[in-house]
Amino acid sequence: xxxxxxxxxxxxxxxxxxxxxxxxxxxxxxxxxxxxxxxxxxxxxxxxxxxxxxxxxxxxxxxxxxxxxxxxxxxxxxxxxxxxxxxxxxxxxxxxx
Length: 97
Prior knowledge:
single chain; mainly alpha; 4 helices; 59% helix; 0% strand; elongated
Protein backbone atom coordinates (compact mmCIF):
# COMPACT_ATOMS: atom_id res chain seq x y z
CA UNK A 1 0.00 0.00 0.00
CA UNK A 2 1.40 3.44 -0.84
CA UNK A 3 2.25 5.57 2.14
CA UNK A 4 1.23 9.12 2.80
CA UNK A 5 -1.58 11.46 1.89
CA UNK A 6 -2.31 11.69 -1.85
CA UNK A 7 -4.38 14.89 -1.62
CA UNK A 8 -1.46 17.04 -2.78
CA UNK A 9 -1.33 15.24 -6.12
CA UNK A 10 -3.14 16.64 -9.14
CA UNK A 11 -5.99 14.77 -10.82
CA UNK A 12 -3.68 14.07 -13.75
CA UNK A 13 -1.10 12.45 -11.46
CA UNK A 14 -3.82 10.35 -9.79
CA UNK A 15 -5.13 9.18 -13.18
CA UNK A 16 -1.59 8.38 -14.30
CA UNK A 17 -1.02 6.28 -11.16
CA UNK A 18 -4.28 4.40 -11.77
CA UNK A 19 -3.31 3.57 -15.36
CA UNK A 20 0.16 2.41 -14.32
CA UNK A 21 -1.28 0.34 -11.48
CA UNK A 22 -3.74 -1.34 -13.86
CA UNK A 23 -0.91 -2.14 -16.25
CA UNK A 24 1.04 -3.84 -13.47
CA UNK A 25 -2.06 -5.80 -12.39
CA UNK A 26 -2.58 -6.98 -15.98
CA UNK A 27 0.98 -8.36 -15.87
CA UNK A 28 0.23 -10.34 -12.68
CA UNK A 29 1.63 -8.07 -9.95
CA UNK A 30 -0.43 -8.10 -6.74
CA UNK A 31 -2.50 -5.05 -5.78
CA UNK A 32 -0.23 -3.61 -3.09
CA UNK A 33 2.96 -3.90 -5.10
CA UNK A 34 1.25 -2.53 -8.22
CA UNK A 35 -0.01 0.50 -6.31
CA UNK A 36 3.38 1.17 -4.73
CA UNK A 37 5.18 0.86 -8.07
CA UNK A 38 2.64 3.14 -9.75
CA UNK A 39 3.12 5.93 -7.22
CA UNK A 40 6.89 5.49 -7.35
CA UNK A 41 6.71 5.95 -11.13
CA UNK A 42 4.54 9.06 -10.80
CA UNK A 43 6.95 10.48 -8.23
CA UNK A 44 9.91 9.78 -10.49
CA UNK A 45 8.22 11.48 -13.45
CA UNK A 46 6.93 14.56 -11.64
CA UNK A 47 9.00 14.85 -8.47
CA UNK A 48 6.05 14.38 -6.12
CA UNK A 49 2.76 16.20 -5.68
CA UNK A 50 2.12 19.31 -7.75
CA UNK A 51 -0.33 22.07 -6.97
CA UNK A 52 -3.10 22.27 -9.53
CA UNK A 53 -3.52 25.36 -11.66
CA UNK A 54 -1.98 26.90 -14.71
CA UNK A 55 1.76 27.40 -14.44
CA UNK A 56 2.05 25.94 -10.96
CA UNK A 57 4.25 23.07 -9.97
CA UNK A 58 7.18 21.45 -11.71
CA UNK A 59 7.20 20.13 -15.28
CA UNK A 60 7.19 16.35 -15.73
CA UNK A 61 10.48 14.78 -16.80
CA UNK A 62 8.93 11.51 -18.09
CA UNK A 63 12.17 9.75 -17.04
CA UNK A 64 10.48 6.45 -16.24
CA UNK A 65 8.65 6.28 -19.56
CA UNK A 66 11.90 6.74 -21.46
CA UNK A 67 13.71 4.05 -19.48
CA UNK A 68 12.46 0.93 -21.29
CA UNK A 69 13.00 -0.37 -24.77
CA UNK A 70 15.96 -1.64 -26.72
CA UNK A 71 18.86 0.64 -27.55
CA UNK A 72 19.96 0.71 -31.18
CA UNK A 73 23.11 -1.18 -32.02
CA UNK A 74 26.16 1.06 -31.90
CA UNK A 75 28.40 1.16 -34.93
CA UNK A 76 32.12 1.00 -34.41
CA UNK A 77 34.34 4.01 -34.99
CA UNK A 78 35.80 2.37 -38.10
CA UNK A 79 32.31 1.81 -39.57
CA UNK A 80 31.29 5.43 -38.95
CA UNK A 81 34.55 6.66 -40.44
CA UNK A 82 34.13 4.48 -43.54
CA UNK A 83 30.57 5.74 -44.01
CA UNK A 84 31.75 9.35 -43.69
CA UNK A 85 34.49 8.82 -46.27
CA UNK A 86 32.05 7.15 -48.66
CA UNK A 87 29.58 10.01 -48.26
CA UNK A 88 32.29 12.58 -48.87
CA UNK A 89 33.40 10.79 -52.05
CA UNK A 90 29.82 10.64 -53.31
CA UNK A 91 29.27 14.37 -52.68
CA UNK A 92 32.60 15.19 -54.35
CA UNK A 93 31.73 13.18 -57.48
CA UNK A 94 28.25 14.70 -57.76
CA UNK A 95 29.60 18.22 -57.35
CA UNK A 96 32.05 17.64 -60.23
CA UNK A 97 29.21 16.92 -62.70
